[in-house]
Amino acid sequence: MAHPLEPSYDWRTPVTLTGLGLVVCVGLLxxxxxxxxxxxxxxxxxxxxxxxAVVYQRARAYLMxxxxxxxxxxxxxxxxxxxxxxxxxxxxxxxxxxxxxxxVANEEGRARYLVPTALLTAGHSTFFRxxxxxxxxxxxxxxxxxxxxxxxxxxxxx
Length: 158
What we know:
The protein is an alpha+beta fold. The chain has 2 domains: 12-59; 63-153, Roll (PH-domain like), CATH 2.30.29. It has 4 helices and 7 strands, in the order H-H-E-E-E-E-E-E-H-E-H. The protein has helices spanning 12-32, 37-59, 123-134, 142-153, and strands at 63-66, 69-72, 79-82, 86-94, 97-106, 109-115, 139-140. A 4-stranded mixed beta sheet has the order 6-5-4-7. A 3-stranded antiparallel beta sheet has the order 1-2-3, with helices on one face. A hairpin with a 2-residue loop joins strand 4 (86-94) and strand 5 (97-106). The model has no long low-confidence stretch (mean pLDDT 91).
């Protein structure tokens, strides 16, 4: 049975440290008795909420390969893509490295999905092995071809 790939980073440490920092800062602000401390504390809480939203979105990165099916989680629902449906692959540069946007042609028309390879352990090698075996017809852009050649030189992908 196939299993989803593990996230490539530890999200617990930054969340714990920023949460503790927020508690300390709000405690110091409230204990100071200075006028106007409440808007500053509210701003700190808003920044923490934004940070947690970013971390949550990254922690939800999902990729599972089960034979010809690639399973992703773009937002709230899971999407299954058959290799024969993939028309094109485009590289998307992120702060963690390259991820890939796939263009899929299915019964409903065309759809684009992000494959978050940069956020997952063994994401690149798993995705490219699936791509080579299940979707050889897919058109690859220049960055994707370059990454594929690099993985082939390293012996990760055939």
